[in-house]
Amino acid sequence: MPRKAIQDGSEGVIKAQVRIKAGVIQDVVILAGPRVFHAAVKAAMLQYKCLSDAGDEVVATQEFNFKLE
Questions:
Q1: What SS3 state is found at 33?
Q2: Residues 67, 1: Cα–Cα separation, whole Å
Q3: CA torsion 50→36→11→65, rounded to 10°?
Q4: pLDDT per residue over 6-43, tens digit each?
Q5: In angstroms, rounded to a whole number, what is the distance separating the alpha carbons of residues 33 and 53?
Q6: How many CB atoms neighbour CB 22 within 10 A?
Q7: Distance CA 62, CA 64 (A)
């Protein structure tokens, strides 16, 4: 959870798309959600380790739910 989001009491759902080629993250695009979470989501997705049987390119979408507890 980004510090700024905690300070502001921000919550939200981020929808992000990642492009993977030969198991390596090539690109992360934020499709929707509060801007305060964009950098955290991109940083997290760029750390993903992916398995691939082929060199094919794959595009996947994932949602991240940021909620204060």
A1: coil
A2: 8
A3: -10
A4: 899 999 999 999 999 888 899 999 999 999 999 999 99
A5: 32
A6: 13
A7: 7
Token digits of residue 46: 């760029």
Question: What amino acid occupies position 58?
Answer: V
With 80 as the cut, is the pLDDT of residue 55 above it? no
Which SS3 state, helix, strand or coil, does residue 21 take? strand
61 three-state secondary structure = strand
Cβ neighbours of residue 40 closer than 8 Å, sequence gap 6 or more: 1, 2
Nearest-angstrom CA–CA distance, 51 and 67 = 30
How many other C-beta atoms lie within 10 A of the C-beta of residue 69?
4
- Provide the whole-model pTM: 0.84
Q: 3-state class of 67 per DSSP? A: coil
